[in-house]
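Support request, please re-run this one:
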Amino acid sequence: MYEKLSKRALSCMYTAGIITGAIILAVIAAVDYFWIFPEDVTIGKWISLILAVLILFDVVISPYFRYHRYRYSINDECIDIIEGYLFVKRNIVPIERIHKIQTKKGPVDQIFRVAKVIVTTGGGDVTLSFLEDEKAERIAESLRKRINEIVLEQREVQSEIQERPAVQHPEEKSGSEMKGQTCYGRK
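Re-run finished. Output below.
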């Protein structure tokens, strides 16, 4: 069953979007002020206006859709994350492939008491974003416990395999019988 994000996540998304949008708009304004307006580049003014409108549109609309599309599910076998705005992405990570678990909070995350759980596998990182602090810690701890269980199961299987006596087939020769032979069976 998929879980949704809390309302704190939506507020965090809007705040982060506003901050990012303001920085990008400040860069556009600086370019306009120092280059486009003094040179009177008409096409530059139109491009700046279109970019500003798109950024404002993204700041207002993107968090809403990202919040309502974001879903995640964690069971004994895998982590499943569905996220996106224009393009929806789905990540499925088998728990047995996890190498590292990390929780992380940025400055805006700390204000809204949300955190990220970053799961590292051999193929890269997958992030569970905008989780409430307590839930992020619980998820990280439960994943750690599950990984430890998997490691113990694998060790038990390995020790059972090693304890079994080796069975030698009649056509196989022992090491002493093979002394002096090359890989191709010649002496």
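Confidence is low (pLDDT under 50) at residues 180-187. The first strand starts at residue 71 and ends at 74.
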